[in-house]
Design goal:
The complex is a heterodimer. By secondary structure, chain A is mostly helical. Helices cover 72% and strands 0% of the residues of chain A. The longest helix of chain A has 33 residues. In chain B, strand 1 and strand 2 form a beta hairpin. The chains are: A mainly alpha, B mainly alpha.
C-alpha cells in the first residue's frame, strides 16, 4: 500500500512514457539554467524518495560537505581541459582550413602552404566562381549537381517518410503476427554490406535502362533509409501517452484516424528531424551515385561531381576546397537546425543500457 | 449444447482488425525492402555462381549454369588473403580507436561548463560532413607539396622531407616499419567516426545517477578508481553494442578508402576489390563472388564475437 502511495506521489514530475525522461536528458545541454534546474530537481527527487527518518540532503548541503579537491583531481582537471581543447582543434580546424583555402589564390597557397589564415588583401572568390559557373562557360557546373542532389534527396525524404510514418506507428502501437520478423528484416537491411546489393542492382538498372536515372537512385536510397527512419520514429511514437490514443479510439476513430489526427500532429518536430536525417543520408551518399550515374555527367550529384574533379586534369586544391564547402554547407546548416531532436532520436536506445 | 459451441462469431474481432491495419500500414515498407534489398541479395548469391561479364549482362538471370569457378578464382587470385588481412587490421584499428576517442570525449564533456553545448555540436562535424568533402580536406592537408601538415612538419617538427601519407606503403619510424597509408586511413576513420561513439556514450553517461559517483568520492576513491569501478561498468553494455556496430560498418566500408587512396599503397580492403572487379575487370560473377565472401566473413566474425562475449558474461555471472 505504502509502495503504491509512494510511486503515485510524483506522477506529474516524470514525463510521460518512462524512457522519454531519460531521452530528454540526453539531448539537453545541461549548461543552460533550465538544464541545471531539472538536474537539481531530479537529484532532489531521488534523494527524497527513500525517505527515511534522516533529513533529506539537499544539493547545496552536499556541496558544502565536499572535500577540497585533491592534487590528483587537479591533474585530471587540467588533463580534461587539455583534452577538450585538443578535441575542438581536431574537429574544427579541418573545416577552417577548408574555408581558408577556398578563399586564397592558388599561387599564394603554393608559396605559403603552412598559412592557416587568409589575409584580407588576398581574399578571392575566384574558386567559387569557377565551381559555380556552368560547364558551358568553362566552369565546373555545380548548380546542375546541386539541383540533382536536391532532387534526389527530397524525393528520398518524401517517399521514405510516407512509408515510414505508418510503418513506425504499426510497429510501435499495433499487435500483429510477424512484427518481430519485420524488425529482424530491417536490422538485416541496416547492417548488410551495401557492396553486395550494389552488384545485382547495377546489373538490373543496366538492363532496365535505369542507369543515369535520378528516380532509380532515389528508390535505392529509400530502401536503405526506411529502416532507420522507422527505428527513429518508433522511438518518438512510443513517448506519446497511450491514453490519448485510446481516447481517440473510444471516440470512434480508426487506427488510421488516430495516427492522422492525434499521433502525427504531436510528432511533427520528430518527423521533421527524421526527414532531415534521411535528407542528409541521401545528400551525402557516394557509392550508389558512383555506380549508377557515372556515365552521365548531367545527372551527377554534388558528391559525385566533386569526386570527379580530382580524377580529371590537374584541378587546383583551392577549387576542390571551394567545391567541398558548397557540398558541406547545406548539410551543416540543416544539421544544426535539428541537432537536438536528431541526437535524441538516434541515441534514445542508449540510456537503457 | 451444440448451439453454444457453434455460436456465430462476429465477422472480425478488434484484435484481428488491429492486426490487419498493422500489416496494411507496414506493407509499403516491406514491399520496397523486399524488392530493393532482399531480392537483390538472393540474386547476388546466384550471380556469384555464374559466369557473367558486363558484356553478356543481358543473359544474367536468377538461374543459369551454376559453377564454382568464381569462388575458386576469388580464393586463388593474387592479393586475396592480403586484402582480407588489410580489411581486418583496418576494421579493428578503426573500431577500437574511434570508440576509444569517443569515450575520452564523452568523459571530458561529462560535467556542464559554459559553452559545452556548442563544443558538443562542433564535435559532430566530422560525422555529418559528406564523405567526399571530408576525404578531400584530408587529401589536400596531407599533400606532400602544398599540404599544411607537411609544411608544418618540415618547418616545426624537423622532418627531413615531406611524407606522402596516402601513397607510401611502408616507412620506418625510429627503426620500426610502419604501414603508413593504412595507418593514415585508420586515423581518418577514428576522426570521422568518434562522434558516433561519443553521441551514444554521452547519452548513457548522463543517465547514470550521480549518487553512485558521489558515494565513491565520499569514500575516498580516486578519479581513476571512480572511472574504472563506477562509470566504466555502466558503460560496458553500450560499448559492446558500439563495437559490434562499428565493426560491421567499417568492415563494409567502401567510400573512405576508395576516396583517400583508391585502394593503393597497401590499403586495398575487400569492398574496394569488389568495385575493381566490377568496373575495371567488368567481371560481374567474380565481383559478386567476392562480395558474397565479404558478407560471409562478416557473419562468421560476428558470430565468433557474440559467442565469446556471451561466454564471458556467463563466466562473470558465475
Amino acid at each position: 500500500m505504502s509502495a503504491r502511495a509512494r510511486s503515485s506521489e510524483h506522477p506529474e514530475a516524470r514525463p510521460p512514457g518512462g524512457a522519454s525522461g531519460a531521452t530528454g536528458e540526453g539531448g539537453r545541454p545541461d549548461g543552460s539554467p533550465a538544464g541545471l534546474a531539472t538536474e537539481r530537481t531530479r537529484r532532489a527527487e531521488t534523494a527524497v524518495r527513500p525517505a527515511g527518518p534522516a533529513p533529506a540532503p539537499t544539493p547545496a548541503h552536499r556541496r558544502r560537505r565536499r572535500r577540497p579537491t585533491t592534487r590528483e583531481e587537479k591533474v585530471w582537471g587540467a588533463l580534461r581541459v587539455l583534452t577538450i581543447v585538443l578535441l575542438v582543434v581536431v574537429t574544427v580546424v579541418p573545416f577552417w582550413y577548408m574555408i581558408v583555402l577556398s578563399l586564397r589564390p592558388i599561387a599564394e597557397v603554393v608559396l605559403e602552404p603552412g598559412k592557416i589564415w587568409v589575409s584580407l588583401s588576398e581574399i578571392t572568390t575566384d574558386s567559387y566562381r569557377v565551381v559555380l559557373r556552368s560547364a558551358d562557360d568553362g566552369g565546373q557546373g555545380f548548380p546542375t549537381f546541386l539541383r540533382n542532389s536536391g532532387f534526389v534527396a527530397l524525393v528520398t525524404m518524401a517517399v521514405t517518410l510516407l512509408a515510414a510514418i505508418p510503418g513506425a506507428y504499426a510497429v510501435s502501437r499495433l499487435r500483429f503476427r510477424g512484427r518481430k520478423l519485420v524488425s529482424g528484416l530491417f536490422l538485416v537491411v541496416y547492417l548488410f554490406p551495401p557492396m553486395v546489393l550494389a552488384i545485382p542492382l547495377f546489373v538490373l538498372f543496366t538492363r532496365l535502362g535505369l542507369r543515369g536515372s535520378l528516380l532509380g537512385l532515389a528508390l535505392v536510397y529509400v530502401a536503405q533509409t526506411v529502416p532507420v527512419a522507422i527505428y527513429m520514429l518508433r522511438n518518438y511514437f512510443e513517448t506519446i501517452p497511450e491514453s490519448l490514443e485510446e481516447a481517440g479510439l473510444m471516440d470512434g476513430l480508426t487506427h488510421l484516424g488516430v495516427l492522422r489526427r492525434i499521433s502525427l500532429p504531436l510528432a511533427v518536430p520528430s518527423v521533421t528531424a527524421t526527414g532531415l536525417y534521411v535528407f542528409m543520408i541521401a545528400w551525402n551518399e557516394f557509392l550508389f551515385a558512383l555506380l549508377f550515374l557515372l556515365e552521365q555527367p548531367s545527372k551527377w550529384t554534388v558528391s559525385l561531381g566533386l569526386s570527379r574533379l580530382s580524377g580529371s586534369i590537374e584541378v587546383p586544391s583551392t577549387i576542390l576546397m571551394a567545391g567541398s564547402v558548397v557540398l558541406t554547407v547545406p548539410i551543416v546548416v540543416l544539421f544544426f537546425f535539428a541537432e537536438r531532436k536528431l541526437v535524441e532520436g538516434l541515441t534514445s536506445g542508449a540510456e537503457k543500457g | 449444447m451444440a448451439a453454444t459451441t457453434r455460436a456465430p462469431r462476429p465477422p472480425r474481432t478488434l484484435r484481428q482488425q488491429e492486426a490487419r491495419t498493422g500489416r496494411l500500414l507496414l506493407s509499403p515498407t516491406v514491399i520496397i525492402v523486399l524488392a530493393v534489398v532482399i531480392l537483390p541479395i538472393i540474386w547476388a548469391i546466384s550471380l556469384a555462381f555464374q559466369r557473367v561479364r558486363l558484356i553478356n549482362i543481358r543473359r544474367a538471370g536468377l538461374v543459369g549454369n551454376y559453377t564454382l569457378d568464381n569462388m575458386e578464382r576469388v580464393f586463388t587470385s593474387p592479393g586475396f588473403w592480403d586484402s582480407l588481412w588489410t580489411t581486418l587490421v583496418y576494421t579493428i584499428g578503426a573500431t577500437v580507436s574511434s570508440i576509444g576517442l569517443g569515450l575520452v570525449a564523452a568523459l571530458a564533456l561529462r560535467r556542464p561548463f559554459p559553452g559545452r553545448g556548442a563544443i558538443r555540436a562542433a564535435m559532430l562535424l566530422p560525422y555529418i560532413t559528406p564523405v567526399v568533402a571530408a576525404t578531400f580536406v584530408w587529401t589536400v592537408a596531407l599533400n606532400p607539396q602544398f599540404g599544411i601538415v607537411n609544411a608544418w612538419g618540415t618547418k616545426f617538427l624537423g622532418w627531413d622531407e615531406p611524407i606522402a601519407f596516402l601513397s607510401t606503403e611502408r616507412s620506418s619510424l625510429l627503426g620500426v616499419p610502419v604501414p603508413t597509408a593504412l595507418l593514415t586511413v585508420i586515423v581518418f576513420e577514428a576522426w570521422r567516426y568518434f562522434p558516433f561513439a561519443f553521441l551514444f556514450l554521452v547519452a548513457r553517461i548522463q543517465a547514470i545517477p550521480g549518487d553512485l559517483d558521489e558515494a565513491a568520492r565520499m569514500d575516498g576513491a580516486t578519479v581513476w578508481q571512480r572511472f574504472r569501478y563506477v562509470t566504466l561498468p555502466q558503460l560496458m553494455p553500450v560499448i559492446a553494442v558500439l563495437a559490434v556496430l562499428r565493426f560491421i560498418f567499417t568492415f563494409n566500408k567502401f567510400d573512405d578508402v576508395y576516396l583517400l587512396t583508391g585502394g593503393g599503397a597497401g590499403t586495398e580492403v575487400i569492398s574496394v576489390r569488389v568495385y575493381e572487379f566490377l568496373t575495371a575487370r567488368k567481371d560481374v560473377g567474380l565481383a559478386a563472388a567476392q562480395a558474397v565472401v565479404l558478407a560471409v566473413a562478416l557473419v562468421v566474425l560476428i558470430v565468433i564475437y557474440l559467442r565469446s562475449t556471451s561466454r564471458a558474461e556467463k563466466a562473470n555471472a558465475r
